TrEMBL record:
PANTHER family: CYCLIC DI-GMP PHOSPHODIESTERASE PDEF, SIGNALING PROTEIN. Residues 11-258 form the EAL domain. InterPro entries: Cyclic-di-GMP_PDE-like (IPR050706), DICT_dom (IPR019278), EAL_dom (IPR001633), EAL_sf (IPR035919). This is EAL domain-containing protein (Putative c-di-GMP-specific phosphodiesterase class I). CDD domains: EAL (cd01948). It comes from the Bacteria.
Amino acid sequence: MTSLLPADHRAPAAPTALREVLDHDGIRSVYQPLVELATGRLVGYEALARGPVGPLERPDHLFAAAREHGLLAELDAACRRSALRGAVGQGLVAPLTLFVNVEPEVLESAPLDDLVALAAQAPGRLRVVLEITERALTARPAELLQTVQRVRELGWGVALDDVGAESASLAFLEVVRPDVVKLDLRLVQQRPDRAVAEIMNAVNAYAERSGALLLAEGIETEQHRRAAEALGATLGQGWLFGRGTDHPAGPDAVDVAPLALATSADPVPPGPRVTPFDCLPAGTPLRRSTKRLLVQLSIQLEREARRLGDTCVVGATFQHARHFTPDTARRYAGLAAGTAFTCVLGEGLGDEPAPGLRGAPLAADDPVADEWDVTVLSPHFSAALLARDLRSGGPDGEREFNYALTYRRETVVAATRALLGRVAPRR
């Protein structure tokens, strides 16, 4: 990954040990089984990276060193190659499914071509699910959505990892649309409380709407397994079923339960020219109004977002930076502090137009520059104000727009994705 720091402030050269690991294919993969909880049958494996025996063998040490020395992209690519090469060599093909991780910081430099080429070498079809975390969306929204779209085009699946570790992960379920939701290990290992109930309300609502599968991590005891089933998980992973191994059993040696990934394709794939207003279904009744009413409707949606708090994603467009007034900046700085993710877009806006607020400058020819949009999305609420400028002229407050106020969840999700797909990485 290209450093974003000036040349004279970049990280120091990598230590010899880490450089040798990368130069001599010192990364290996072990494979931890994933099982069907009701029957104990194997459904697949998660590929886990390991370094050579010594101080860099543990993955946390390995990745910490790579981050410190600016080699995260190179290490991440090496881990993916190792995961697929090992799976091909071990014959971990369909009906088994292979789960592979990708680090969020390197999405823009993690092309899928190398994975596709390695998968093609398998003697049978290699079923792949790419694992991401909510950190990927907060750090690199546009790249993540592009990666997810490419994964779907390949016929592979997507898993959202560590759901429940942070409230923000609940907000992004509908944005990422994972086929598999991996529940953080604390959900099965700790006593049920209000936080667990909130998480499971959101997760089960998403699973019911989408058909996504729930997989519980960290199952180490029979009690953990029962807790996972009580939470709605049908799949499990943990030491009760096996640790990572160099010699995983292939589909000919064990009873396999094939995964049925049911999440549908994105109804409106994010693209550089798709706007939130474009996401309105054909035939949606449009109203005509001045900007004065739109401002008040926007503020009302902002109130809803503040009420929803840290399980909410907010996106807004203001056409041009001059419309993002100091009062508006204060309101949106507050939203950014109190929600999972808030972004604003407009011609002339910077990457951080208010403290903690993500911004995205719009090109003058971007069709979103003609729109006034506000989207609010959370596990149990969705609303969007989607308006297009009629260029009627006159005083700013009297400018007229065609608009729709919608609570249709599919429309709000698509409109939110259209906005997030334009947000550059956080620097």
